[in-house]
Specification:
Number of strands: 10
Helix content: 10-25%
Number of domains: 1
Low-confidence stretches: none
CATH architecture: Alpha-Beta Complex
CATH class: Alpha Beta
Distance between the termini: 42 Å
Length: 170
């Protein structure tokens, strides 16, 4: 659509299941939370993976989502002229302040694409939902983690405290 001149390159939209969704500008809490999550995941994965922020991933012909964070195996530029797909993605993360409905919809997109693990960080509820075991277009496993819990991301060398993924209270 960008190449055809239908959309500008910086248009605030995501293609999800064949529909364009207008994305709201990020507020300061969401923006800062994304930085904190990215840093925590970079520590957990080390040098074997890299983090992409708010960048497209290949989720099939009808979806081109832009997760808040995507953890990719290998080195930047190794993919050449394509977006990372399920084979390269260890984890995708959405931070939900007001976007819980859309982020739950994205779980199906990520599962159908074969992304091994998807995290939805629900900031108002102060919890992490870990979706894993994609099969037949859905995640077979859904685990709820709360403040005080730890979780080891798919393929990571270290665990991350859920409290590290959430903004401070107050």
């Amino acid at each position: 659509m960008v190449a055809a001149g239908i959309l500008d390159e910086d248009e605030p939209v995501e293609l999800i299941d064949g529909e364009l969704y207008t994305m709201s500008p990020q507020g300061p809490i969401h923006s800062e939370n994304a930085v904190v999550v990215r840093r925590a995941l970079e520590r957990a994965y080390g040098a074997t993976h890299y983090a992409r922020s708010h960048s497209p991933i290949d989720a099939g012909t009808a979806s081109l989502p832009e997760p808040d964070i995507a953890i990719v195996r290998g080195e930047p530029f190794a993919l050449g002229k394509r977006y990372p797909g399920a084979a390269e993605l260890a984890l995708v993360v959405e931070i939900s302040l007001t976007s819980q409905r859309l982020d739950r919809l994205k779980a199906g997109v990520y599962a159908r694409a074969g992304v091994a693990e998807y995290w939805q960080i629900d900031v108002p509820k102060r919890c992490l939902v870990v979706f894993s075991e994609p099969r037949d277009g859905e995640y077979r496993r859904r685990d709820l983690r709360r403040d005080g819990d730890e979780v080891t991301p798919n393929g990571a060398a270290a665990a991350v405290a859920v409290s590290e993924l959430l903004p401070p209270v107050g």
